[in-house]
Task: inverse folding
């Protein structure tokens, strides 16, 4: 199934390279798919528009490389023994290279709403006990609410599940909580971490929120040793040590369709690359609207795209402090809400207004991974403070396409807004770290426009298509498409969003390309990579360097697929 590629442009040798599959986008979804394909003997080319791989799991460094910040790796669930993450990485022999550090088993996330502080534990039983302890007058309602969410998400009491799915699962989580008579405070605590999918509760099906809670409650929260960039670096290494290539600064402009079949891609500079299979792990909306093009869409898909809503974009503030917060016992992960009206906040943002008081997710890499060598020097802490902001270029006073180099970074209105929102985020963060401003030695903010520019997502959305019923379960986009040879990977597909889901899903997409059930094979013990074939890790290993072009050590193609039970 191999065809000849046209010669790549400057900086990329190999006029005679041929590819079985081209993957668009080097986020966790695209890279995992590429790695599984390469490990199974396919010649794979991954094309990434950015100058570093990893998508939203990329990191960046500031202050002369003194501080490193994660863009979108704060906490991940299902990473323990037997969890989906370990299974997906086992098939690629990566479990020793991408190590997951369990975060505070006694309570991985501190939730703060006015008057209440709550530690999210592991396990539904403890979760219920803590909710009841926090709101003793609401025990009956809390028991009912948690029991229903648990049946829906954890699959316990299977006979009752279909009933609860139909009765409550498809209705908004707020309806269930209201029906259980929960107070605004109790509701706020249950909803407080929903910034991990940025969608208003009144529009979030109970099944979605319950599934989200279950993601962390079943085995706790994890963070990758060495920071989020290890994901991109090691997946890239599997690809390049198995005969594949990962090209950065290679923006795909078009997926080529001939006689109704995907046959390759065209880059922004005009280079055409042909392959038997094309996998798009880029933004769902842009894949169809821009890369494939209206003329190749079905009527149904066109309709879907017209009304398609994306999850809201984030506004993030990256801060370094000249104090080690571990010495104070500050929680490494927290959500701080200055109000208990979660829906009220979302409604403001949806209406295009930036509320005076903003909720903030606080993540402290130096506390999550104390031995991380790149986060900060000893005695310092790094913090990622995430919140939401209205979407749309108009709100941010940006004209033109930020992914096409539209200038906005010096625009006064843009800078003013950025500064205003930065101060609001710091105001909320002060509720947990009162001297944050005094100890701050570095501060920089990113807007939805920044996210759009670096990951090319629609409106800077962080979590793909909105988790409405019409986009969930059987209605979620499949990894196979109506166009033969074209497959999808990434956060908007049937496997869902988030780092765990996109890695798991990347394996699923590779299986679809190969016509095999890779998930079942890996679950049965198949390992397709011999660790000895991967690039040796030296003491000075730098995941960021290994994620940039030219730094990846390419080895002779190793095409023999290995399957060991
Ligand atoms: C601020 C933030 C916080 C987050 N926090 C968490 C968290 O704590 N836990 C968690 O599990 N998840 C978190 N996420 C979500 C998680 O990072 C994403 O779900 C995941 O990265 C999605 O992976 P993906 O492969 O679908 O796409 P992405 O990571 O978005 O990567 C897509 C890649 O495709 C490239 N691309 C797009 N179009 C083209 C093109 N035309 N040509 C070439 N390349 C292209 C982009 O440049 C990008 O690198 C967060 C995300 C953000 C933004």
Result:
């Amino acid at each position: 199934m191999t065809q000849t590629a046209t010669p790549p442009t400057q900086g990329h040798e190999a006029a005679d390279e041929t590819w079985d599959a081209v993957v668009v986008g080097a986020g966790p979804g695209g890279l995992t798919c590429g790695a599984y394909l390469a490990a199974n003997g396919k010649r794979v080319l991954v094309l990434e528009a950015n100058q570093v791989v990893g998508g939203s799991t990329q990191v960046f460094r500031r202050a002369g490389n003194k501080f490193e910040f994660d863009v979108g790796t704060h906490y991940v669930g299902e990473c323990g023994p037997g969890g989906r993450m370990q299974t997906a990485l086992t098939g690629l022999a990566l479990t020793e290279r991408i190590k997951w550090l369990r975060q505070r088993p006694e309570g991985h996330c501190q939730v703060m709403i006015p008057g209440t502080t709550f530690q999210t534990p592991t396990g539904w039983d403890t979760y219920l006990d803590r909710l009841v302890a926090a709101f003793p007058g609401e025990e009956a309602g809390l028991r009912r609410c948690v029991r229903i969410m648990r049946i829906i998400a954890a699959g316990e009491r299977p006979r009752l599940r279909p009933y609860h799915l139909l009765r409550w699962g498809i209705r908004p989580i707020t309806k269930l909580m209201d029906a259980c008579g929960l107070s605004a405070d109790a509701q706020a605590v249950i909803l407080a971490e929903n910034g991990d999918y940025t969608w208003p509760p009144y529009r979030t099906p109970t099944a979605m929120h319950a599934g989200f809670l279950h993601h962390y409650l079943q085995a706790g929260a994890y963070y990758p040793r060495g920071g989020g960039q290890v994901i991109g670096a090691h997946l890239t290494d599997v690809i390049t040590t198995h005969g594949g290539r990962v090209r950065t600064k290679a923006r795909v402009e078009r997926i080529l369709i001939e006689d109704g079949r995907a046959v390759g891609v065209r880059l922004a500079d005009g280079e055409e690359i042909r392959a038997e299979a094309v996998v798009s792990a880029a933004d769902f909306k842009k894949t169809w609207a821009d890369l494939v093009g209206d003329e190749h869409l079905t009527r149904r898909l066109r309709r879907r795209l017209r009304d398609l809503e994306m999850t809201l974009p984030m506004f993030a503030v990256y801060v370094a402090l000249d104090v080690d917060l571990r010495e104070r016992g500050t929680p490494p992960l927290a959500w701080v809400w200055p109000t208990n009206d979660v829906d009220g906040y979302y409604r403001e943002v949806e209406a295009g207004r930036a509320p005076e008081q903003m909720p903030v997710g606080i993540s402290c890499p130096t506390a999550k991974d104390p031995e991380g060598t790149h986060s900060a020097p000893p005695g310092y802490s790094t913090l990622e403070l995430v919140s939401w902001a209205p979407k749309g270029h108009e709100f941010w006073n940006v004209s033109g396409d930020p992914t096409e180099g539209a200038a906005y970074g010096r625009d006064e209105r843009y800078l003013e807004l950025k500064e205003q929102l930065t101060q609001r985020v710091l105001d909320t963060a002060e509720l947990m770290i009162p001297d944050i401003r005094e100890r701050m030695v570095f501060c920089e903010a990113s807007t939805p426009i920044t996210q759009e520019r670096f990951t090319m997502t629609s409106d800077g959305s962080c979590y793909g298509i909105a988790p409405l019923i019409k986009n969930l379960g059987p209605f979620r986009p499949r990894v196979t498409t109506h166009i033969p040879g074209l497959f999808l990977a990434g956060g908007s597909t049937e496997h869902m969003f988030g780092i765990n889901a996109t890695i798991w899903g990347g394996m699923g997409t590779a299986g679809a390309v190969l016509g095999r059930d890779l998930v079942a094979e890996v679950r049965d013990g198949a390992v397709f990579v011999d660790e000895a074939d991967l690039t040796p890790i030296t003491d000075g290993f730098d995941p960021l360097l290994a994620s940039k072009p030219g730094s990846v050590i390419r080895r002779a193609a190793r095409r023999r697929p290995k399957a060991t039970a």
User: Anything to note?
Assistant: The first strand starts at residue 3 and ends at 4. The domain at 18-62+75-92+226-308+463-544 is CATH 3.50.50.60 (FAD/NAD(P)-binding domain).
